[in-house]
Design brief:
- The chain is built from 7 helices and 9 strands, in the order βαβββαββαβαβααβα.
- The protein is an alpha/beta fold.
- The chain has a domain of 127 residues: Rossmann fold (3-Layer(aba) Sandwich).
- It has a 5-stranded parallel β-sheet with strand order 2-7-1-8-9, with helices on both faces. Strands 4-3-6-5 form a 4-stranded mixed β-sheet.
């Protein structure tokens, strides 16, 4: 019997809301991209943002790119599970997208910065909190420099913030290290966490108002 087959009914009970967070530059996007290849009954939330689209990003797939007016309209209508301004741009998790996926029995994954993760932890009691960590702070700083998508001032601010964000690790339930060239290991560790939580007593029951 294949215990990791998504069609195996006992593996999937109540759907989970899984928050994956970590410092800027740790590789959340890359890990999620790998996880999409695992063919699990998962929904990956497409975050809304007002920041400019990068050359390789696709609207509606990588992010929902909104202008400030559109974002503000959704924020005033309380259409975000959480939203925050980060480095001068707004980011938000569309609430209806999460509710619809949970209603379909999908485990919902959302990637957030440390601030956003703290907000969801307070709003959704049974959200599953996973901290994605770098192998070392030196490696994290190297990754930030390697992206080359930041100005020197922005890079300085992000590097300083990342050191502070690492201190939030103790607020999470699980830690997964994103080792160099081992996205597979990080993804499989998160998959194992989900499997373990499906066997948890008492069962997590996610409720979103």
């Amino acid at each position: 019997m294949d215990l990791i087959n998504p069609d195996y009914p006992d593996r999937f009970g109540d759907p989970l809301l899984v928050v994956v967070s970590g410092p800027s530059g740790v590789g959340k996007d890359a890990v999620f991209q790998y996880m999409r290849q695992l063919d699990r009954p998962w929904h990956f939330v497409v975050t809304a943002t007002t920041r400019p689209r990068r050359r390789t990003e696709r609207n509606g797939i990588d992010y929902l790119f909104l202008d400030t007016e559109e974002f503000e309209h959704m924020r005033e209508g309380e259409q975000f599970l959480e939203c925050a301004e980060v480095y001068g741009n707004w980011y938000g998790v569309p609430k209806q997208q999460v509710k619809d996926a949970l209603a379909r029995g999908k485990d919902v994954f959302v990637k957030l910065d440390i601030q956003g993760a703290a907000t969801v932890r307070n709003v959704v009691k049974d959200a599953l909190m996973v901290f994605l960590a770098p192998p070392s702070i030196e490696e994290l700083e190297r990754r930030l420099r390697f992206r080359k998508s930041e100005s020197l001032e922005s890079l300085r601010l992000r590097t300083k913030a990342a050191r502070g964000e690492m201190k939030a690790m103790d607020d999470f339930e699980y830690r997964v290290v994103n080792h160099n060239q081992r996205l597979d290991l990080a993804a499989f560790c998160i998959d194992a966490i989900v499997t373990a939580e499906k066997c948890r007593i008492p069962t997590r029951r996610v409720t979103i108002q």
